[in-house]
Design goal:
Number of domains: 1
Order of helices and strands: EHEHEHEHHEHEHEEEHE
Helix content: 25-40%
Number of strands: 10
CATH topology: TIM Barrel
Oligomer: single chain
CATH class: Alpha Beta
Shape: globular
Strand content: 15-25%
Number of helices: 8
Largest sheet: 7 strands, parallel, barrel
Structural class: alpha/beta
Distance between the termini: 14 Å
Length: about 250
């Protein structure tokens, strides 16, 4: 049976955290990426999200970002390679420590937002992130944009990788995600998202906003947990995969 990982960004709130939608989302995905406090989340939210993941049986990942609470980690920041290494080392170590204190293991690391997009296009940034991850634990899986420097740089230093594609984002002809400041960046129709997912899994391509077919490797599919229709997307895509005989597992 063909299988695929379905991942979702979670723990992106503060303090008085309610398990509502995160708890429901975990019923439909196989791995989660927990905000590490630099773009969202705090110590309490991280702990509660890890506890819930253990209860739901989903794989736990760290979701490090630029230190940008006001911009939700989606604004570019000029940082040195050493600084990027350090902020990733700090954030991932924190989530890994909380996981171990609660009796589970950190499974993967996936950069967030502007840090992710910068590293996808810049090998030095990608190498700095991957180097921090391998220092923490060389057995961690590194999630990165399919076909990007995130994958190639992580593989160079010996990390296992998972090539990531997106259910709720559109693509440019170069294989990068359409910038969020464009009106066509997000997919808000669940049927279109599900069709894109099946195309990426079965045909190993995605149709760019310009009409070209872009080849890609699909090992993990992201659904953004902060989207208005995140729960509907997760449920529908989960059902679509099962209907087509595709197992969902990390």
């Amino acid at each position: 049976m063909k299988s695929i990982d379905l991942n979702c960004d979670m723990g992106e709130s503060f303090g008085a955290w309610k398990m509502g939608r995160d708890a429901e989302l975990m019923d439909y995905v196989s791995s989660i990426n927990i905000a590490c406090g630099f773009h969202a989340g705090d110590a309490t939210v991280i702990r509660k999200t890890v506890e819930l993941a253990i209860e739901k049986g989903v794989a736990v990942g760290a979701h490090p970002s630029f230190p940008d609470l006001q911009g939700f980690g989606r604004r570019e920041m000029k940082m040195s390679i050493d600084e990027i290494f350090d902020i990733v080392l700090y954030q991932v170590s924190a989530v890994k420590g909380i996981c171990e204190a609660l009796g589970t293991k950190l499974h993967h690391v996936k950069p967030h937002g502007a840090l992710y997009n910068q590293a996808a296009k810049d090998p030095e940034t990608a190498n700095a992130i991957a180097s921090a991850v391998v220092k923490i634990d060389p057995d961690l899986v590194f999630y990165g944009l399919s076909g990007s420097f995130l994958i190639t740089e992580a593989e160079k230093i010996g990390l296992r990788t998972a090539s990531e594609v997106f259910a709720d984002r559109t693509y440019g002809a170069d294989g990068n995600l359409t910038p969020r400041n464009r009106p066509d960046a997000l997919i808000d129709d669940v049927e279109i998202a599900a069709a894109q997912v099946m195309q990426m899994i079965c045909d190993h391509t995605v149709t760019a906003v310009t009409g070209e077919l872009v080849k890609l490797k699909t090992e993990t599919i992201c659904i953004h947990g902060d989207g208005e229709n995140a729960l509907e997307f997760a449920r529908s895509i989960n059902e679509k995969l099962i209907e087509n005989g595709i197992e969902i597992k990390s």
